[in-house]
Structure formats: C-alpha cells, structure tokens
Write a structure and sequence with these properties.
globular, 2 domains, 179 residues, mainly alpha
C-alpha cells in the first residue's frame, strides 16, 4: 500500500507477489489485498491487466465468510468500478446502486451529465464539510473552466499533503489541458 501510494509501482508489485506466493500465508484477506493492489498499480496504464488482477482478488475472497471480507470485497468492487469509469469501459455493466456517491458523480461526468455530478458533490461537501482529494478532482472535471482548474489544483495539493503520489496523477493530468 505504501509503496504504491508513493508511486513506486514496481516495488509495490514485487511486494504483492511475495505476499501472494508466500506458502506460509494462508490469509485470504492479505492475498486479496495484494491482488487488488497489483491491479490498482495498472489502473492508469493497462485496463485489462488492472481488471484481471482485481477480478482475481474477488475470486480469492469468494463468498465472504465474515464482515472483514465483506468490507474487503466492497473495496475491491469500488476500485474495479473506478477503473471502468476512468477508462470509460463497460459503463453499461455498472449499476448505479453499486456506486458510492462520489463514484456516481464520476460516472455522471463520463456520461456528460456534469450538472448531476455537481449536485452530488455539493451535497457531499455540505454533509461532510469538505471534499476528499478524489471529490475535488471530480468537481474540477465537472465544473471546468477557471473554477474547475482551482478544484484540480486543490485536489493535487490534497493528494500531495496525504502523501498519495500515485493518485496525484489524476489532477496533474487534467491540469495539463490548462497549460
């Protein structure tokens, strides 16, 4: 997790494969996390590899036998949904009820329904008192223009402050169209 969010993808993959291939590791949760993180490391560069590893993570979990595995399964599914929305692939397979509010906003943006996305994000801001790094990114995309640029800059700053140099890719890439 730390290696990935420090944007050290190769190190993250190496550590994950160690976890997966450790014959003494009989823990479904750690193997599932490892497969998901490998998939996540490909989220921006290779849709199919990312999807395959995330689906492997889900197959390792199988039918969750406890609350911890149910939560793990939900996190993997959420990451898989983000992948599909980000790459605009298999959007027709996404059920809106499976999305949390922020990802619903992201899907609306991808579908060109920015006003719906803005409404959701403003509701999240009112409810929580702030927007997360991802939500700031989504708001920047939805709003566009100079105001959108400000949201994207705030998103990049938020990712930076939290030490997430992997997902900072999102606002930094979006900001390139402003230069």
């Amino acid at each position: 997790f730390v290696a990935l969010h420090e944007d050290n993808k190769e190190k993250a993959r190496e550590l994950c494969f160690e976890i997966i291939n450790d014959e003494a590791n009989c823990y479904v949760s750690t193997k599932s996390v490892a497969y998901c993180k490998i998939g996540e490391s490909f989220v921006f560069s290779d849709f199919q590899k990312a999807k395959d590893y995330m689906e492997k993570s889900l197959s390792v979990i199988g039918n969750p036998v406890n609350r911890k595995l149910e939560i793990r399964r939900e996190k993997v599914l959420n990451t898989l949904l983000f992948l599909k929305i980000y790459h605009e692939k298999d959007l027709h397979t996404i059920n809106f009820e499976d999305l949390d509010e922020a990802e619903k906003a992201f899907l609306y943006i991808r579908l060109g329904e920015n006003e719906k996305a803005i409404k959701i994000l403003k509701a999240l801001q009112d409810k929580n008192g702030y927007l997360s790094s991802f939500q700031l990114y989504y708001m920047g995309l939805a709003v566009g223009g100079e105001e959108g640029k400000k949201y994207l800059e705030m998103s990049a700053e938020s990712f930076s402050k939290s030490g997430d140099f992997f997902y900072i890719f999102l606002p930094k890439t979006a900001l390139k169209c402003y230069n």
